[in-house]
Write a structure and sequence with these properties.
By secondary structure, the protein is of the alpha/beta class. Helix content is 49%, strand content 18%. The protein is built from 19 helices and 18 strands. The strands form 4 sheets. A 6-stranded mixed β-sheet has the order 5-6-7-3-8-9, sandwiched between helices. Strands 14-15-16-12-17-18 form a 6-stranded mixed β-sheet, sandwiched between helices. Helix 9 runs antiparallel to helix 10 and helix 12 runs parallel beside helix 14. The chain is globular, with a radius of gyration of 30 Å.
């Protein structure tokens, strides 16, 4: 049964069409993950559904099931909080409870009005129970704790809390209000991994309908029953997770691009034949061919129009250094390092090395010391104890959370040519085009760039310097999903070493082959992200949360921990071996597909009126083999992403 139906919804801001004939239908229990580039109208759509915005007065239809209760969490909380309220305050619940108590007193004091008052009391009870009844406060506390708000925060006035703390409090209140339709705009922005996992678990068991805007791919994969992409004012909706959506889109795109290529080749051939007929004054054949050309041209235009709506791909690429492959020994070595502030250790007794081709991710809860550990390994921060040795021959590249440029008034073209003066203007424009800066965009000044554009330009400069070791601090923070995925592939192709801080689970699992994971004041090396999370959960279940003190972990404890992790690491090693075999199979199929496409293209170019039937049979056989290999390729790709 449908809870929400939208048809032909339009919305225009200052002459710009944000929503253009958008349609959507959701049933009870659906969980829709809504994604798309920034500025495409995702938040506007949620505001229209919640009633905070009105669509344009075009032909439209917006219908909700009768009695639907909507819970809406905006991306930014604009209201100034009441200084008398805290996280536990809920005026509606408090007023409902107070009304019940008032009616109870009146029934006791005025028995002659009992009949009339009891009817009013019955309505008050229903309202109270609809809000959660006597279990409301317990549910609210559970939600607040689950979202990471500690006891010392709960009783503080709301106007003394940070934006993130207020956002989590608002989310907890919406969760316990029992909405039928829950609208969440980037709810994971202010949550750490424990809070995100708690929200995922809650949403997965939530009986109502959910629309959630997100750029967190793991979050979308874990909660969505449907995924939608908003682009050019319209929604494209598919059943399944974000990964399911991406794979389905890749299959459709591959098929359409192949179809377009075939049609373009056929059109070119027909145009040449038509011109030949005209030159030889064979007008009957010419007019017949002309009709075929017109038909093919229309088909090509239709396909190109459909494919033309795709956003231009941002292509990141790393320069290769052949000498790296022959290097041995560590690039950076840490021995028994610790870091303390105010006599309290963030971490202690950590020893590790970074070797060529290592892909290491540092992860852990907010404030645990991830960036500090990265800076110690980079040599820009001294440890409280222990030492770090950096190979003097290693060329280091660094991308921090704050991206600084020497001159904010430089144009993009001037900035990259400043890094490499040998670049001609044409080469500089070609380079910037691979990072999404095209045509007059290369003459924009750096000060005019958005956060995502600054990150792309910074990466462009970084890669021009051909580093041997990359230090990255939350590199996906300012990138949209498409740019994140291209960055991931570039990092997989990069032949140097990587040490990166990240909380992006999808990015970590895609790129990392080692994890330096924080558990309390300990940092240990794990073979996978899941191994680290499993150890975190085991610690939480079997022992109280660790207290960060100045005491180092004993050697015996470290040895016991390593034994506990040995089985997990062995299993992960086997998984990595299987993944390597899958990657090799994918590469083999890619080469075969490219070879078959080249053979098909050569045959298509040779087609003529006198072409024998055997050539067409060979052509059909090649098309069949290409289809089979393409299917195998996508099957393997699906297995590799599981």
């Amino acid at each position: 049964m449908s809870i929400l139906t939208l048809e032909n919804i339009h919305k225009t801001y200052f002459g710009k069409k944000v929503l253009d004939g958008l349609s959507l239908s959701l049933d009870f229990g659906d969980r829709l993950a809504l994604t798309g580039a920034n500025g495409t109208g995702k938040s506007t759509l949620l505001k229209i559904i919640s009633g905070l915005e009105t669509p344009d007065p075009d032909v439209r239809w917006l219908n909700q099931a009768s009695g639907t209760v909507i819970g809406y969490l905006p991306q930014q909380l604009s209201a100034i909080p009441d200084p008398t309220m805290n996280c536990l305050s809920n005026p509606e619940y408090d007023e409902s409870l107070l009304q019940m108590r008032r009616l109870e007193e009146q029934m006791s004091e005025h028995p002659e009005q009992y009949s009339e008052l009891s009817k009013e009391y019955d309505l008050a009870i229903r309202r109270f129970e609809a809000l959660g009844g006597y279990g409301f406060q317990a549910d609210l506390l559970a939600a607040l704790h689950g979202l990471g708000l500690t006891a010392d925060i709960l009783n503080r006035p709301l106007n003394t809390l940070s934006g993130g703390e207020r956002m989590r409090s608002a989310l907890a209140h919406i969760i316990v209000s029992r909405p039928d339709l829950l609208l969440l705009d980037e709810p994971t922005n202010h949550l750490d991994i424990e809070g995100i996992e708690w929200l995922e678990e809650w949403l997965s068991s939530f009986a109502g309908t959910v629309i959630v805007i997100s750029h967190d791919r793991s979050f979308m994969d874990n909660i969505a029953t449907h995924t939608a992409l908003l682009a050019q004012g319209k929604l494209k909706v598919r059943a399944g997770s974000y990964t399911d959506f991406k794979e389905a889109e890749a299959t459709v795109l591959f098929s359409r691009e192949r179809e377009l290529k075939n049609l373009q080749e056929a059109l070119k051939y027909e145009q040449e034949v038509t011109q030949t007929m005209f030159s030889h004054r064979k007008m009957k054949q010419y007019h017949s061919r002309e009709k075929r050309v017109a038909k093919l041209s229309g088909q090509v235009d239709e396909l190109e129009l459909g494919l033309g709506g795709r956003q231009a791909r941002v292509k990141f690429s790393f320069q290769s250094n052949p000498e790296r492959k022959n290097r041995t020994g560590s690039l950076v070595k840490a021995e028994n390092i610790s870091l303390a502030y105010d006599d309290k250790f963030l971490f202690s007794g950590f020893s590790a090395s970074i070797f060529p081709q290592d892909r290491i991710m540092i992860t852990g809860p907010n404030g645990c010391g991830k960036t500090s550990l990265l800076n110690i390994m980079k040599g820009s921060l001294s440890p409280s104890e222990g030492k770090v040795e950096i190979n003097p021959r290693v060329k280091i590249g660094y991308m921090g959370q704050t991206l600084q440029f020497d001159s904010e008034t430089n144009t993009l073209l001037a900035e990259v040519r400043q890094v490499d003066p040998s670049l001609t203007e044409g080469q500089g424009r070609d380079l910037l085009a691979r990072y999404g800066f095209r045509e007059i965009g290369v003459f924009k000044k750096i000060t005019m760039l958005s956060g995502g554009e600054r990150a792309r330009l910074y990466l462009c400069k970084l890669l021009l310097q051909m580093p041997d070791l990359l230090f990255l601090d939350e590199p996906t923070n300012h990138l949209d999903i498409e740019s994140q995925e291209i960055l991931e592939q570039a990092l997989l192709d990069y032949d140097g070493a990587i040490l990166s801080v990240s909380h992006d689970r999808y990015f970590i699992e895609k790129v990392a082959d080692k994890i330096w994971g924080f558990i309390g004041a300990e940092v240990q090396e794990y073979s996978s992200y899941q191994s680290w999370r499993g150890m975190v959960r085991a610690r939480l279940e079997n022992s109280p949360a660790p207290v960060r003190t100045g005491k180092k972990q004993s050697r015996a404890d470290c040895k016991n921990n390593r034994k506990q992790q040995a089985g997990v690491r062995q299993e992960a090693a086997e998984k990595r071996k299987a993944a390597a075999q899958q990657r090799q199979a994918l590469q083999t199929l890619e080469q075969l597909i490219h070879q078959q496409e080249a053979e098909i293209g050569a045959l298509e170019a040779s087609f003529a009126e006198e072409t024998p039937a055997s050539v067409y049979e060979q052509y059909a056989e090649l098309l069949q083999k290409l289809e089979e290999n393409t299917s195998k390729y996508f099957e393997l790709l699906e297995e590799a992403d599981r």
